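Module 6 notes. Inverse folding takes a fixed backbone as the condition and produces residue identities as the prediction. Think of it as a translation problem where the source language is geometry and the target language is the twenty amino acids. Below is one complete input and output pair. Work through it position by position during the lab.
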């Protein structure tokens, strides 16, 4: 068993399989239809394959890349029974995805010498930022880390309340101020407190709903500047959260956001209950920024470290 096989436990594998259920059903259903009764990979098979990938929201660009690679391989191999197609497709998809260069989060461990490790969580409203912070807090705590939350979304009173509930549920402290306070000053206090307490990881929430996009980006820059007054190399990660159930819109959002601000990591949420999970492949293929986490439900445990092999493997495995 590979090292990662050990880290990626049975429980994680099960929640991944469950979370991707709808995408799998739709994708595998179409894939099976595409190759049914065929003894050779011809134009027709490739067309159907393309259709299956696009309808799982893998997106045109990534789909075309995959099909090209398969065409190349198939002509090289001359004859190819369709029974092998799944395996080749799986291999080519996996090879296409650049593995996240940062292994720091594997098993929710953090890079050494960066304490507190500061993660600034950004994204438009409703994508799952606050929930992802709650889940991350739980996972880091479970991995033996001390965690502090910073309630940087001061735009709505409910936002602070929501993060407070997560802090109680997980059992980690929170730094917060009343609604309408300057988010940068909350971030400043949170970083100072994290340093004073010697915590391992600080997770800072931000508002997704501001008056306009320029204002939102300005606010994020201000938060970053203030954090850097205390820890010059922080935030160690700016984690952009994307709602996977919006399919290609999530890709669009990632383009806009990464153009406007420095994003260093991606989290894709709400993969449960959608057939559009293929968007993870499109995002992982088209952004140099690594997909680090995926959200597969609303519960505390429903957050996984993204692993391309496990993801693709799950996508291709029939449910038991
Ligand atoms: N099914 C499912 N629901 C999720 C997931 N992640 C978040 N949600 C739900 O999505 C909704 C919005 O999540 P929030 O965490 O409040 O999103 P947010 O980005 O903080 O939103 P704002 O604070 O309004 O900007 C909530 O009802 C969450 O329970 C997920 O992975 N799966
Ligand atoms: Mg929120």
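Target side of the pair, the amino acids:
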């Amino acid at each position: 068993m590979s090292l990662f096989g050990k880290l990626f436990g049975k429980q994680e594998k099960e929640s991944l399989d469950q979370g991707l259920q709808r995408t799998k059903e739709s994708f595998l259903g179409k894939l099976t239809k595409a190759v049914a009764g065929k003894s050779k990979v011809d134009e027709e098979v490739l067309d159907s394959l393309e259709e299956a990938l696009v309808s799982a929201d893998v997106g045109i660009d990534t789909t075309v890349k995959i099909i090209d690679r398969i065409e190349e391989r198939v002509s090289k191999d001359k004859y190819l029974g369709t029974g092998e197609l799944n395996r080749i497709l799986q291999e080519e998809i996996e090879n296409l995805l650049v593995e996240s260069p940062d292994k720091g989060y594997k098993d929710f461990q953090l890079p050494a010498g960066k304490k507190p490790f500061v993660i600034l969580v950004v994204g438009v409203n409703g994508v799952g930022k606050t929930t992802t912070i709650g889940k991350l807090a739980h996972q880091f705590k479970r991995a033996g880390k001390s965690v502090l939350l910073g309630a940087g979304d001061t735009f709505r009173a409910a936002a602070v309340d929501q993060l407070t509930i997560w802090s109680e549920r997980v059992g980690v402290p929170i730094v917060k101020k009343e609604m309408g306070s300057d988010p940068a000053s909350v971030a400043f206090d949170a970083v100072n407190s994290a340093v004073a307490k010697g915590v391992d990881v600080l997770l800072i929430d931000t508002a997704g709903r501001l008056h306009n996009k320029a204002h939102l980006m300005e606010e994020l820059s201000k938060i970053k500047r203030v954090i850097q007054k205390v820890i010059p190399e922080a935030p160690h990660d700016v984690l952009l959260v994307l709602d996977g159930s919006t399919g290609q819109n999530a890709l669009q959002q990632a383009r806009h956001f990464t153009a406007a601000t420095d994003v260093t990591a991606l989290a894709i949420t709400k993969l449960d209950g959608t057939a559009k999970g293929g968007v993870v492949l499109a995002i992982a293929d088209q952004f140099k920024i690594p997909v680090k986490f995926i959200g597969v439900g609303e519960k505390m445990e429903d957050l996984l470290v993204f692993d391309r092999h496990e993801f693709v493997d799950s996508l291709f495995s029939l449910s038991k």
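Reference fact for the lab report: Confidence is low (pLDDT under 50) at residues 1-6.
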